[in-house]
Please model this.
Amino acid sequence: MDYKKYIADRIKIDGVGENEIYSSIALPPNSEMGDFALPCFKFAKVLRKSPVAIAEELKSAYVTDGVISEVSALNGYLNFKVNKVGLAGSIISEVLKEGDGFGASDTGAGKTVCIDYSSVNIAKPFHIGHLSTTVLGSALYKLYKFLGYEVVGINHLGDYGTQFGKLICAYKHWGNKQEVEKGGIHAINELYVRFNNEADEQMESEAREYFRLIESGDREANEIFEWFKALTLKYVEGIYSRLGVKFDSYAGERFYTDKMQPVIDELRAKNLLKESEGATIVDLEAYGMPPCLILRSDGASLYATRDLAAAYYRKSTYNFHKCLYVVAYQQNLHFKQVFKVIELMGNDWAKDLVHVAYGMVSLEDGAMSTRKGKVVWLEDVINKCVEKAYNVVAEKNPDLENKSEIAEKVGIGAVIFGALYNNKIKDIVFSYDKVLSFEGETSVYVQYTCARANSVVSKAEGIRLPNDYQPNAAEFEVVKAIAAFKTTLVEAAEKYEPSYIARYAVDLAQKFNKFYIECKILSAEGETKDFRLALTAATLQTLKNALALLGIGVPDKM
Ligand code: ARG
Model:
């Protein structure tokens, strides 16, 4: 049951929409005051009354019932107490009944969300800089699906550009089929690095010719290119499968080769194009931005041109409700420009394009994704984390069976959670020790809590939720946290913040552990025992569902 919605439905404030009331309802800092609170400060302006007076009036108008048993007004807050017995019974039985589907809804029914994420560059390293886009995009993908949206996951491949001419040239000079086949993306990357270090004028000019050959459909050049592409994709798909990441489309930049001209024609017809130093641009000075480059002076298209074509293609193919671009904040300007151009072309759906920007990830030793010659491959980070997870798990519980399997879940979880736990726009320093700690705000902590809950539940002979059980304070904190799962999901989707789910999981785990320490479970008796077991089972299920949305599995034992 969504209590916030229940309350919001029963409050009317002139000039304030139901959605706003809904999103204003929060948990009070102190649970003595109530279980939910509506701060009235922001309504003061519209209503021309003091927050204290507003809270008083709303209190008099509110009719309590079997769900909300008490309402009070204090210092400009309207506080609600829920019927504890009713809430505990209804939420636990809902979780136990819905299982893996608990938290799912059909809010998004009939709406499609396109999510452009991970977007690898063919023949280039898949490095730690791709971690956030991959796991953020994937979490949003799972979240929107869970909320009933149709979701299209798009890997907008970086498979267009003069570097492919260079690569083919390098391969022709120094490459060897078996070596590349065996070394895969690493071998290809070495060829590219070698070209950049060693190529002379002659090779540069050959490279331009190879690029032209790819563009003009030359068979051999395209075969080599397709081979490099296949090797890159095979490599990244191995990583995607470990991270639980999926795509519905791999339409990359090249896919738009023949789809740019109509957009350019439309831009021209709408008088939006200008010549500037030989190049073709859309002037954005009036909007305080540098021009958006559409064609270079040699007639070649640009990154932005392909993004314009891609946006049009996605709109006409998927008729999206929203199209998200999960891309680092370094590209803020690029997306602002592209979205502006689409708006200037007269498309009202420009407002549905969203750049979901995120911060940088670096390692503790200062290594970053882009620093020259010091690329940190994402695969190495994952392997190292899984290796360390093995030691951490083995140390905690030397008798565990399937240590490798568990270490994979724990290590992968730590990589994902480490990237997702903070507000996405923050730069983060990834620390193996920190993300693999059993204490602290980590996936390991949450997984360990699940293992603990699982061990209790597996010793029970069936789960029977008693009727009309009056929960104590520690139990009720867990109940309320479980009841907050749905609103957390809705807010996470609205703000494109999987971190809300990560934080939620830690919060629920903490409350559960407090309950676990304070209250006997298996050695309790009668209805108390039954209730506590049911509460434990419901917590386990909710934590599993939360972690699953982030792409993290839960081992039975740890
Ligand atoms: N491949 C690009 C990069 O690595 C990211 C592409 C993002 N998506 C887009 N539609 N531009 O920078």
About this structure: The pocket of arginine is lined by residues 116, 119, 121, 156, 158, 307, 310, 325, 327 (CB under 6 Å).
